[in-house]
Write a structure and sequence with these properties.
The protein is α+β, with helices and mostly antiparallel strands. It contains two helices and six strands. The protein has one domain: Roll (Nuclear Transport Factor 2, Chain: A), CATH 3.10.450.
Length: 153
């Protein structure tokens, strides 16, 4: 006889178009009904914004949250070897474990100009394949570009 697991809450999809999950990034004025700022309407969009924020934030940059973020910009001018590649992956995994425990990382791909000639020098392109723990069937990805002149997608 099968026993239903009631300890996990199901992933709920809200079909109400008047309900919004979070503020969309980059900050901008909303032209619609969601309020002053443009907002996200799904959990996946909100989680992608959280991941972009986490990867683009340098540790110590956020007031009252000195451990929030990663120090990925320090790798921009280093030779990316197998050791630094593993170090970057470990830093991302550990940060996700603490700040985004509801996200399960399936794969991390780090691309530099040494690996791909289309990537500009002194830039890291980080692609993360992930799912939300409450909905393991929804697999999606986010890409973040870390550069010395700022960050972008």
């Amino acid at each position: 006889m099968a026993i239903k697991d009631t300890t996990r809450k199901p992933y709920i999809v809200d079909n109400d178009s008047n309900v919004f999950v979070g503020i969309d990034l980059p900050f901008r004025r909303s032209l619609n009904k969601e309020g002053w700022f443009a907002s996200t309407s799904t959990t996946i969009e909100s989680v992608k914004n959280n991941i972009r924020n986490l990867l683009n934030t340098h540790q110590g940059e956020r007031l009252m949250q000195p451990t929030l973020g990663l120090n990925l910009r320090r790798y921009l001018f280093e030779q990316i070897t197998e050791d630094t590649y593993i170090s970057i992956q470990d830093e991302i995994f550990n940060s996700f474990k603490f700040w985004l425990p509801f996200v399960e990382i399936k794969d991390i791909e780090i691309i530099t100009n040494e690996m791909d000639s289309t990537v500009e020098p002194n830039k890291l392109v980080i692609k993360i394949l992930f799912n939300i723990l409450q909905d393991p069937n929804t697999l999606t990805s986010v890409q973040v570009v870390i550069s010395d002149t700022g960050t972008g997608d």
